Amino acid sequence: MSDTASDFSSFSLDDFSSFDESPVGSEDSSDTDGPTLGGAAVAVVDADLAVRDYLADLLGEGVAKIRSLAEMEPRLGMGPVVVVLGPSCSTPTDFALVEQWGRTHPEVGAVLVTSELSTQLLQTALRSGVRDVLSAPIDQMQLVDTVSRVAETLKVAPKESLQPASPSLSEPLESFDGNPGKVISVFSTKGGSGKSVVATNLACSLAKNSDRPVVLIDGHLQFGDVAVMLKLTPRHTVVDAISQLDRLDPALIADLMTLHKESGMMVLPAPLEPTFADQITGEQMLGLVNVLREYAGHVIIDMPAYFNDVVLTLIEASDDVVLVAGLDIPNIKNVKIGLSTLSLLNIPKEKLHLVLNRADSKVKLDVGEVEKTLQIRAVAHIPSDVVVPISVNKGSPVVLSAPKSSVARELEKLASRFQSGEVVQESSSGRRKFFG
Predict the structure, then answer these.
(1) What average pLDDT values come out for the chain (436 residues) when binned by 10 residues?
(2) How far is C-alpha 96 from the chain's CA centre?
């Protein structure tokens, strides 16, 4: 890896904005009782005093201003803190220290500010555990929003623990030559249908009952919620896996994954920044999935609620597609349109599995009539239950937090359809057909 610090040899405040370089004090502030954006303290670290003052002014009064990460380290361990790294903090030594903090200080989140963003710098920063990277010109609202968002994720990290809340796998994965795992996409044509709840619980249930690893990928690359719903603090995301696609091996895959300890499933969260989604192609995602299925029994993909190149590529490559719909007219209308689109794309109907969410709601829609309209029989009817929002807020899948509930039982039945590799498909006429 080349020394990225050379990228900033000519750095000046003019690279950020038309900042008025008025005289600044000669002493750094050591005040750690400053702003608590999102419930966390904030510190700015850079070797240049003017840069420290400029970034601290954008964030508000009382920000701790520190010359180096080495000086920052003794101040850690006193609660959640977002560390804003200036351009001078982009050396291999600094990134190695940030990566170490990811293992020993889960209450710390880092944001890098640069004068010029390169692909190499972005990849290096994200691999080290930096939560977000901002480049010039720096917008004050964007910086404040980024720091606040990172701070919110630190609340789930146990302050008393010196281990990450979401550890990577400790051992490399084992390849299953000639017996690739099944790929299941969980898709919906309308937001708010409960798609992510189904995806996380399906993966969790499969992981509990499988002798091979189960991988859950957050395919909603712009606004994925899987990490939040599972109360994970990931060090790596889909972006990191895609950037290392040509060298993915069992050891690297294990390092990139975040382990959900309660179920044993492996999670690859969505990018932390929505703009990264535009850099990922359907071909890249397909390559990633094909690598992962060599080591996993099941690869579950939580999809966004729209069609694009990535979504269509993954649906075509999936062995099964779980189509989630809420029991209301807009949902049903969108599902019908979605089914027509998939039919035009020659997606085999036998690999589509309709799941009706909140199927017992008193909304005067008959399930039988809905199935007749869509010309596909639902394989699962998930009832309405307060245990679902409770489980989401707790960050624990309902199959774990309320295993005896009717919702959990229905989700377990859904997962059992994919356990043996032999999938039961029911046509609208009620005849059962077997595929696999």
Answers:
(1) 37 44 35 53 91 89 87 82 91 89 84 85 83 84 86 55 42 60 92 90 92 92 89 87 83 86 92 79 92 92 90 93 87 87 86 85 71 87 89 91 93 88 42 28
(2) 23
Q: How far apart are the first and last CA of the chain?
A: 46
Beta-carbon contacts of 407 under 8 Å, excluding residues fewer than 6 positions away, are: 382, 383, 385, 387, 388, 398
Query: Distance between CA atoms of 203 and 415, rounded to whole angstroms?
Result: 8
Judged by DSSP in three states, 432 sits in strand
The CA distance from 393 to 403, in Å, is: 16
Residue 39 tokens, joined? 């419930």
| 216: nearest Cα among 168, 178, 259 | 259
**Nearest to residue 128, comparing CAs of 49, 286, 236?**
236
Question: Is 65 in contact with 52 (CB distance < 8 Å)?
Answer: yes
- In terms of phi and psi (left: phi > 0; alpha: psi -120 to 50; beta: otherwise), the region of 282 is alpha
Q: Which residues of 88-105 are buried (b: 16+ CB within 10 A; e: fewer)?
A: bbbeeebbebbeebbeeb
How many Å apart are CA 256 and CA 290, to the nearest integer? 16
The whole-angstrom separation of Cα 351 and Cα 240 is 30
Q: How far apart are CA 179 and CA 174, in angstroms?
A: 12
Distance CA 109, CA 84 (A): 9
Give the tokens for residue 353.
Answer: 């599995």
Q: Using DSSP bridges, classify how beta strands 132-135 and 108-114 pair: parallel, antiparallel or unpaired.
A: parallel
Backbone φ and ψ for 104, nearest 5 degrees, come out as -105, -20
Torsion angle of C-alpha atoms 54, 58, 59, 63, degrees rounded to 10: 20
Residues 295 and 175: beta-carbon distance below 8 Å: yes
Cα separation, 148 vs 41, whole angstroms: 10
Closest CA to 154 of 144, 140, 165, 167: 165
Output b/e per residue, 413-436; b: 16+ Cβ within 10 A: ebbebbeeeebebbeeeeeeeeee
Q: How many residues belong to the chain? A: 436
Distances (CA, A) of 91 to 2, 102, 147, 204, 268: 9, 17, 22, 39, 27
